[in-house]
Design goal:
The protein is mostly helical and 189 residues long. The protein has nine helices and two strands, in the order αααααααααββ. α5 (59-73) runs antiparallel to α8. This is Gluconate 2-dehydrogenase subunit 3 family protein.
């Protein structure tokens, strides 16, 4: 079984639709296929065998596999429904920079950038299918969330907790050693 590396876990999920400032700056290089994000090994394995059950015999195995995929793909749709996309400054900037490159489509095709993007998207789709499959197996085995799909009750509880956390003031934290920590929030007016 391939695990997500710590470096992969700290990056943005590969399904994040918003371009970063780095993505904008590297647009010309990525169009020439000189700079490209590597496809995570876990997604390559998922593409090769999305329905494999090797090493999956207990709920803990499913929990670990789903967690590794979550680290790369981001939250699953069962707990994080897609939001309406607005205009992103970085996405707009990336499109503007790309529009300055003459014959961009031809260059991307010849350089292999389009082929790499297709392979990356195919690997993401395989990773999403793998996660859904694993959660289905977990549901069949009677595993608890997140090794199985979230129930409507759990989703309601998660949303209520998130809503409460957004409306309540931050609470101070006292560690076992007696250290006191309180978030500082200042009004900007």
């Amino acid at each position: 079984m391939i695990a997500a590396s710590p470096a992969t876990a700290q990056r943005r999920p590969v399904t994040d639709p918003d371009a970063s400032v780095r993505d904008v700056a590297l647009t010309p290089l990525s169009d020439l296929n000189l700079s490209r994000d590597p496809i995570p090994e876990l997604l390559i394995a998922a593409r090769a065998a999305p329905y494999a059950r090797d090493g999956i015999s207990r709920c803990d195995d499913i929990l670990r596999a789903v967690g590794d995929l979550d680290a790369i793909l981001g939250e699953d749709l069962d707990t994080n429904p897609p939001e309406e996309r607005g205009v992103s400054v970085t996405n707009l900037a990336q499109r503007v920079i790309g529009s300055f490159i003459p014959f961009r489509g031809i260059i991307r095709e010849i350089s292999g950038a389009n082929a790499h993007e297709f392979e990356f998207r195919e690997a993401i789709a395989a990773g999403l299918m793998r996660r859904a499959y694993l959660k289905g197996v977990g549901q069949e085995m009677g595993c608890a969330y997140p090794a199985s799909p979230a129930t409507p009750e759990l989703i309601a509880r998660l949303r209520a907790t998130t809503a409460d956390a957004e409306t309540l003031p931050p609470q101070p934290v006292v560690s076992a050693e007696g250290f006191y920590s309180s978030p500082v929030v200042q009004d900007i007016n």
